[in-house]
């Protein structure tokens, strides 16, 4: 009898912890636990020039930074008010991933 009660208690705790983890993940935005402002200032700071100018070269650092950010997060950051306030055109910014691909994947 005691083992069955202990089993029920342990299973209840495991289910409760799992549900709490799932709920906390739902509270995160498209960039995970980081705000778009933090992604902009810490992760994508090397991408500012190519986001302003379609013909500016994309640095290797910008390329590496983009690899660590999901596409959904990029779309959110590139279309955010913070990015627009610093003079970035979201349409130009969205070309950066393809420009990185051409610059760093097509060349042997």
From TrEMBL:
Organism: Arachis hypogaea
Protein name: Bifunctional inhibitor/plant lipid transfer protein/seed storage helical domain-containing protein
Gene Ontology biological process terms, A to Z: systemic acquired resistance
Coiled coil ranges: none
Highest taxon above the source species: Eukaryota
One GO molecular-function entry: fatty acid binding
Domain Bifunctional inhibitor/plant lipid transfer protein/seed storage helical: 31-101
Keywords from the named record: Signal
Pfam families hit by this protein: Tryp_alpha_amyl
Annotated signal peptide: 1-20
